[in-house]
């Protein structure tokens, strides 16, 4: 099963090796303009400094939206946005989230676009420190978005969606083998689950990185290495990325031999949405909600844009109810607006961890390299 949920972009993380590789990004192509997006721009949008769009409608204007290669929305939403505002949105897909941030950092102050979507909390501090954004938070975020999703943004960007990287389980496999499913991260090192877990490489997959960060958040700087040492002793299998883990090693569909995999809290509904007809009425997988790591994606106005008011209108639009309602089945993530009704398949089968693990973006940025080196030493060498 391949779906937007699993964000193949996030499993291409060559950016980890250093910014020297970023020069390759200059060759990235741009998508054709999407003529049609536009919903009426906000009449009250304002930045933290008090600046606001000077008009509620625009002369024909083109705004370039830089995004990762898994950005997806229903085309009619884009068409409506253009019809209502006069703003044409040109989509430029750069690659994975890391590539998006690296390229934006290299062009900070002289951007190749006007708005950036797709920087997440594992990369946010890097973008903020590089001066990528002209600070702007959509007014809707002040009252309609949970404060937990706005932590450490420095009032520079607006949260748009979120998802949780979690351990997924093959319920059918566990039932047929009469084995209780693991409930916690600590359970994964129990000998009865020896050889059953497959994870993604934290150095080559951002799904894998998120799981590593979950273990750091749970066990701390001094304890996460011991946990991974125990996982290795329990025959954890490490593969390069999500596709190899979920579609190759995971037992769902009978393709693999490992009934425990690191994936997403929204993987079970994707199993239904992307199943062949007749579709099942319930998924055969479930989510272990202990030890999930929350990823939040943001949008921001790029510093140096020639169209600041129109760029702010695009950020406002990404937080509009119409776009937020489209996010679950277009990108298989959760909208940040709690007032938006979820599709039934999402509300029925996507897990919503009560206490997802998080780390401050600045802490991640300061320690990522050291954590990865430690992880590599205890897990792979």
Describe this structure in words.
The protein starts with 32 loop residues before the first strand and ends with a helix. It is built from 13 helices and ten strands. Helix 1 (75-85) links the parallel strand 2 and strand 3. The protein is an alpha/beta fold.
Sum up the overall morphology in one term: globular
Order of helices and strands: EEHEHEHHEHEHHEHEHEHHEHH
Mean pLDDT: 86
Structural class: alpha/beta
Roughly how many Å apart are the termini? 31 Å
Cα-atom radius of gyration: 21 Å
Number of strands: 10
Number of folding domains?
Answer: 2
> What's the number of helices?
13
CATH class of the largest domain, please?
Answer: Alpha Beta
CATH topology of the largest domain: D-Maltodextrin-Binding Protein, domain 2
* pLDDT < 50 stretches: 1-10, 12-55
Keywords: Signal
Pfam family, one: SBP_bac_6
GO molecular function, one term: thiamine pyrophosphate binding
GO cellular component, one term: outer membrane-bounded periplasmic space
What is this entry, summarized?
The chain is of the alpha/beta class and about 375 residues long. Helices cover about 35% and strands about 15% of the residues. It folds into 2 domains: about 5-160 and about 295-350, D-Maltodextrin-Binding Protein, domain 2, CATH 3.40.190; about 165-295 and about 355-370, Periplasmic binding protein-like II (D-Maltodextrin-Binding Protein, domain 2).
Which SSEs are present, and which pair or pack?
Elements: E1 33-34, E2 61-67, H1 75-85, E3 87-93, H2 97-106, E4 115-120, H3 124-129, H4 139-144, E5 158-170, H5 171-176, E6 197-200, H6 206-219, H7 224-233, E7 237-239, H8 242-249, E8 260-264, H9 267-273, E9 285-301, H10 308-318, H11 321-331, E10 334-335, H12 344-349, H13 361-379
Helix pairs in contact: 6-13, 7-13
